[in-house]
Predict the 3D structure of the following.
Amino acid sequence: MNKWTEILLGLILLNGAIFVWSFSQQWGGFWNFGSAAWEFFKGGLVWFVILIGFILIMLGISDLKE
């Protein structure tokens, strides 16, 4: 994919997500994307820390073999 197309698509997606998030925060209503995004981030953060720990353990075991 062309680098300019990637940048343009990324900007469109980012601006769209920010618009939807700000719209749901401002008027609340039926869809509350802010709380759903926050819950997803918290769960993802836990998995990220677990995977980093696993990678560090694997690198340590690899260094012990040498």
Remarks:
- The longest helix spans residues 33-65.
- The chain has one domain: 3-65.
- Helices lie at 3-27, 33-65.
- The mean pLDDT is 80.
